[in-house]
Amino acid sequence: MTQTTVGRSTPGAALPLPRIPRPRGLQQLVPPPLLAPVPPVPDVTVVPPALTPRRGVSRPAVALDTALSLALGATAAALGVLAAPVALTAALAWPLLLLATGHYRHVGLGESRLTPPLRILGTGARAAVLALALAPWFVTADAVALAALVAVLSVASTVPSLAGIGRRRPRVVLVGRPRDVREALAELRTADNHEVVAACLTRSSKIPLGDLPTYLGFEATSAVAAHHRADALVVLPGARLTHAQVRRLHWSLAGVGADLYLGTGLLDVEPQRTRVVSTAGVDLLHVTSPVLHGPRRLLKDVVERSLALVVLVMTLPLLALLCVAIRRETPGPALFRQERVGLDGVPFTMFKLRSMGNDAEDERSELVAHNEGDGILFKIRIDPRITPLGRQLRRYSLDELPQLWNVVRGDMSLVGPRPALPSEVARYDIDPRRRLVVKPGVTGLWQVSGRSDLSWEESVRLDLRYVDNWSLRLDVSILARTVQAVLGHRGAY
């Protein structure tokens, strides 16, 4: 790295400004001497430069797409669909087009597995429209055939993308206070779509972070990112970096091929609810309010009540058979009625198929000592009150079919938070009480994410995420995932 020396200045003379050298190659990866490791890692005193730059493309994906496109182009030429020069030119141009649109770059932090295939299909759609637009300059049949070839190429390229060929998890470096880093590490380790490779702490601490490489200071975070071949550097809230420091950090990370992410401090806010705005030169993150009322909520209510009525009528013969089987197994009514708390804290009577003995509520007090749930939930994995038939009903969630009548009546929704007992609501603090601003649901994020296997904190967090980020698309996604959850029997006891 080129070094610049600033000499002494004479009175009245302008101070000479240091010349900032333009980074070349890997020279920018040399760390400054301020970087020091956090004990107990005394042997790491300097972060060596990375041997190769991080930014690049996935060569296996490029090679596979090139082979597929050439094979399809040769097939189109052999069948006489397109002239050989046109077909082979299109086949060779297709990987270059994907390269230009950034498809072959490594997946960014927060991108889902569907992001690359959707990017391919979008690129293919635009290319096909362009091919049709060239029809006045070519034979119309050739333009249509070229558009069809582009469509086939885009579909073929989505197959290796969905299979994960050439895809790897983004490598992440965390920057922030020791406590914030520990909490973020616990959150990030619950997902498998990224890998935390190092942490830079703003101050020394004895908080254990396991075997994660840890460094003190943020002056050389770009060198840390380069050394650990990181794709992203996440600055957590509380790091207290100034605007100038963030800007300079962004510059230095660009030289090593790592992306900069700034933590907002928000919890479970979907991206579609946020946008960056600028006022008076200050950049702000605007978070829209949750949709609790309005036309979309009315549409949800009408569609769900109509759909619940149709499904209820279709399942009446099955319900009748199950009611007879329940009455034959144990004495007592086949339907179980229980008071639950609904919208705005208004109680209602919820219906279920009885899966326990008729005296189950009276026997609950005797099983309190065996409660396996945390928080305010009461649950026992092997509950002696459940009948053999009731265990099968719970396994396939058939005991919840009568709740469709609650949906038709308007007490519940098909999708919503978990319906709570009055005894549970009486112990709610501020966060769980937020669940009561919408109707409870027959299914929800709590069901498709584990049901009874979830802790109390996890259950509340999932319900709050649903309430604050509700959309019709989210409801459709949960209904689709409910089928998989029911067939998988996870947390059904």
In summary, what is this structure?
Keywords: Membrane, Transferase, Transmembrane, Transmembrane helix. This protein has 493 residues and is an alpha/beta fold.
What does this structure look like?
Its main location: membrane. InterPro entries: Bact_transf (IPR003362), EPS_sugar_tfrase (IPR017475). With 493 residues, the protein is α/β, with parallel strands linked by helices. The protein has three domains: 29-48 and 169-265, Nitrogenase molybdenum iron protein domain (Rossmann fold); 59-162, no CATH class; 295-488, no CATH class. Helix content is 42%, strand content 12%. It has 17 helices and twelve strands. The protein has helices at 59-78, 84-100, 115-133, 140-162, 178-188, 221-227, 243-256, 295-314, 316-329, 360-363, 388-395, 403-409, 422-425, 430-433, 445-448, 456-468, 472-488; strands at residues 36-37, 171-176, 195-201, 214-216, 232-235, 259-262, 274-279, 282-287, 335-341, 347-353, 413-415, 441-443. The strands form four sheets. It has a six-stranded mixed sheet, with helices on both faces. Strands 7-8 form a two-stranded antiparallel sheet. Strands 9-10 form a two-stranded antiparallel ribbon. Residues 1-54 have low confidence and may be disordered.
